[in-house]
Specification:
It comes from Cognatilysobacter xinjiangensis. By secondary structure, the protein is α/β, with parallel strands linked by helices. The chain has three domains: 159 residues, no CATH class; 32 residues, no CATH class; 39 residues, no CATH class. It has nine helices and six strands.
Length: 254
């Protein structure tokens, strides 16, 4: 992926891949509470499943556009309505969206670079989280249940898009390199000839390696000396059956 085309979906997939399911729980679009109360929303919340990490809860805000980030800066306190329940709070953004010195105090900054590489520019400070109310816990669990159905599909989409990108790069490289282009044309020509042989003889050389004797017979079949010898044999011996077989062997198609 290029930096200019990073989307929120790319950030979702990259965040999931950075937090293996056997070590973390990653959920998206976690609201302050369920029901009719909407309030603030975190784009993602990651919870560690290991005591060695203190069962930490990290909240993430996704920013793909500079304008979206500038709007966030006008009211950074809005994020605290969920950040107060987290041990860390971090912005996950496309490169260039967040400029130097713009982060609110204590916030972290991750950037998603080309090829899906995550650059952790600023480590978020550790907070003293408030006790999690059941309204927020219910919202967290609902977001988790919603994500279960999309988990594998998102990861598969990421790998498919990366494969297609690499395939385009290979094709563009071949188009721009005269030697690679000639080699590709020779390959296509060879495949066409193999198909012609298969149709004419019934032998698929893709699955069969001809013997030396078979190759020599094919060479003799196109030999002018062999054709001359056969015609001489036909004229010297007047046997009708021999004449018929020689004429059939030397007959050329129009």
């Amino acid at each position: 992926m290029s930096d200019s085309k990073i989307t929120a979906h790319d950030l979702c997939v990259a965040l999931k891949l950075a937090h293996p399911a056997d070590e973390f729980v990653t959920v998206y679009e976690v609201r302050e509470a369920t029901g009719s109360v909407h309030g603030s929303r975190a784009d993602a919340v990651v919870m560690s499943l290991h005591a060695s990490r203190g069962f930490e809860l990290t909240g993430f805000e996704f920013k793909c556009a500079r304008g979206d980030w500038l709007a966030e800066l006008k009211n950074p306190a809005k994020a605290d309505r969920i950040a107060r329940y987290c041990d860390r709070w971090c912005v996950f953004a496309a490169p260039g969206v967040v400029k130097e010195g713009e982060l609110p105090l204590g916030w972290g900054l991750w950037e998603l670079r080309a090829g899906g590489v995550i650059h952790r520019r600023v480590v978020p400070a550790t907070r003293e989280p408030e006790p999690m109310p059941r309204a927020f816990l219910a919202s967290f669990m609902r977001a988790r249940a919603k994500f279960d159905a999309d988990d594998l599909a998102a990861i598969a989409s990421h790998h498919r898009r990366e494969f297609e990108r690499q395939q385009r790069v290979r094709e563009e490289a071949a188009d721009g390199d005269p030697q690679l282009r000639r080699e590709r044309e020779r390959l296509q020509q060879g495949l066409r000839k193999l198909e012609e042989i298969r149709q004419a003889t019934g032998i698929d050389l893709g699955d069969y390696t001809p013997s030396r004797r078979w190759i020599e017979r094919m060479r003799l079949a196109d030999s002018p000396r062999l054709e001359h010898a056969l015609k001489l044999l036909r004229d010297v011996f007047a046997d009708d059956e021999l004449r018929r077989r020689v004429e059939a062997a030397t007959r050329r198609e129009d």
